[in-house]
């Protein structure tokens, strides 16, 4: 007789529970990277006055302390997604998180503005690596579509919690321990997350390691995204007459044209062009871009309005905006609960229509000095409606691509959303400069949010009627 391995007739319930615990722990660990990145961004905004006093920074220097992170993050996130698929999501996640933690330590120890800006560039590079890799890990860890959708909602909810507590935590840290603590707090947290992910997260053997490397596409996409970000960052302060702005716009256009030409001829394109023949995939990515244009234009101008018109300091502004941030967390929880009861596109449409109405209403209520209770309701509707749309959007996009391409799909979505956020901030900044009063600018931005969210809702509804790729078609366009 020969020995043979016999599968047990009934699975061991203990093994099933252990696997479920491991999956949930992996989710918490990879989401912790996103938590730190979002928390760091909100804390840094609160710490700017203290940095200015201790580092003798100019207004331009403060702007680059904030924008250096955004610029490197947006420019490299698509490349980070490609690296995740090529070298393995776990490896790239750990490398990106290690770089982010080391850069955070460098930020906390920076002796000058120039050193701090350079360290912020490195922070953005680390985040550009681990963010798309974290979603690829979630995609590989949760095979069941319903469980995966709930995991993505939890992943987004953890990031929303960071956005909610960031202004308050930042005020406490900066007041109690100084501005350097805004960066150094990432070091012990990051080390724990690194060690945990190393042990718990399983390497995904499906990574497309043998695929060719599209070096020309990588370079063209990085230049195009960096130039677009520079244009959006500098346009509100330099104005349309600036030769630097016009030069950056020209570089954006030329690099984008080169990227399209290179990708059409590449044997192994960075982003498979066949993906853009999938109407559902295109609609979801376009919807995400429009949402971020509207949301970040409101977020930027709302903080200016509360400080400049209502006379609130940084901590009071953070507390005043807490209902919107908290509703983001609750909206993600609600999205997870509704998974399976509503289709992804229907859930998105409901959330986006809610935010379409709440955004302009919030601006109108603030301008007319309505009771604060009404403003809170509008803020909560805007935040919850936005949050309700994000998890199903991400889930649908990941379902339209092969599992081994989840990193680049996540990188593409986040690159488009980051570009949308920068365009939203640029529009809001221009409205603040051109309008006679900040209250007028807030109204204009509220209308813009209504238009962009309405457009996103129409795209979500259209995606519900569009035919996505089947499993065989997804495999054919790797």
From TrEMBL:
Annotated signal peptide: none
Membrane topology: Multi-pass membrane protein
One GO CC term on file: membrane
Record-annotated membrane-spanning stretches: 25-48, 60-80, 92-111, 117-140, 152-173, 179-201, 213-233, 245-262, 282-306, 318-335, 347-366, 372-398, 419-438, 444-464
Domain Major facilitator superfamily (MFS) profile per the UniProt entry, residue ranges: 26-467
Keywords of the record: Membrane, Transmembrane, Transmembrane helix
PROSITE patterns given in the database record: MFS
A GO MF term: transmembrane transporter activity
Listed name of the protein: MFS transporter
Originating species: Trinickia dabaoshanensis
């Amino acid at each position: 007789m020969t020995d043979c391995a016999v599968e047990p007739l009934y699975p061991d319930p203990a093994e099933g529970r252990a696997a479920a615990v491991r999956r949930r722990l992996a989710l918490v660990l990879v989401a912790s990277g996103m938590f730190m990145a979002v928390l760091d961004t909100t804390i840094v905004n609160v710490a700017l006055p203290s940095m200015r006093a201790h580092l003798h920074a100019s207004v331009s220097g403060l702007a680059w302390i904030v924008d250096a992170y955004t610029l490197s993050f947006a420019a490299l996130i698509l490349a980070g997604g490609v690296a995740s698929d090529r070298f393995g999501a776990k490896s790239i996640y750990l490398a990106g998180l290690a770089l982010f933690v080391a850069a955070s330590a460098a930020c906390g120890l920076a002796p000058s503005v120039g050193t701090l800006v350079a360290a912020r560039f490195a922070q953005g590079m680390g985040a550009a690596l681990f963010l798309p890799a974290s979603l690829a890990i979630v995609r590989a860890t949760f095979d069941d579509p319903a469980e995966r959708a709930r995991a993505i909602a939890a992943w987004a909810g953890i990031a929303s919690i960071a956005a909610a507590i960031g202004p308050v935590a930042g005020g406490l840290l900066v007041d109690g321990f100084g501005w350097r603590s805004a960066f150094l707090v990432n070091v012990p947290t990051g080390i724990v997350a690194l060690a945990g992910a190393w042990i718990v997260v399983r390497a995904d053997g499906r990574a497309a390691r043998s695929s060719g490397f599209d070096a020309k596409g990588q370079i063209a996409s990085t230049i195009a995204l960096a130039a677009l970000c520079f244009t959006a960052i500098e346009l509100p302060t330099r104005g349309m007459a600036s030769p630097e702005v016009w030069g950056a716009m020209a570089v954006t256009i030329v690099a984008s044209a080169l990227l399209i030409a290179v990708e059409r001829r590449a044997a192994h394109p960075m982003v498979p062009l066949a993906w853009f023949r999938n109407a559902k995939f295109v609609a979801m990515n376009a919807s995400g871009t429009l949402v971020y244009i509207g949301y970040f234009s409101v977020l930027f101008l709302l903080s200016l309005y509360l400080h400049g018109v209502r006379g609130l300091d940084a901590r009071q502004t953070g507390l005043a905006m807490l209902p919107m941030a908290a509703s983001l967390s609750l909206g993600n929880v609600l999205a997870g609960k509704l998974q399976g009861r509503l289709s992804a596109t229907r859930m998105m449409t409901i959330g986006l229509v809610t935010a379409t109405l709440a955004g302009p209403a919030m601006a109108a209520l603030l301008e007319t000095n309505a009771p604060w209770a009404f403003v809170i309701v509008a803020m909560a509707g805007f935040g919850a409606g936005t949050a309700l749309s994000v998890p199903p959007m991400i889930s649908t996009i990941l379902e339209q691509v092969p599992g081994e391409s989840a990193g680049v799909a996540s990188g593409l979505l986040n690159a488009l959303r980051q570009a949308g956020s920068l365009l939203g901030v640029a529009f809001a900044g221009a409205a603040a400069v051109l309008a006679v009063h900040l209250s007028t600018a807030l109204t204009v931005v509220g209308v813009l949010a209504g238009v962009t969210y309405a457009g996103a809702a129409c795209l979500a509804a259209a995606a519900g009627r569009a035919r996505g790729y089947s499993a065989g078609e997804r495999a054919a366009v790797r």
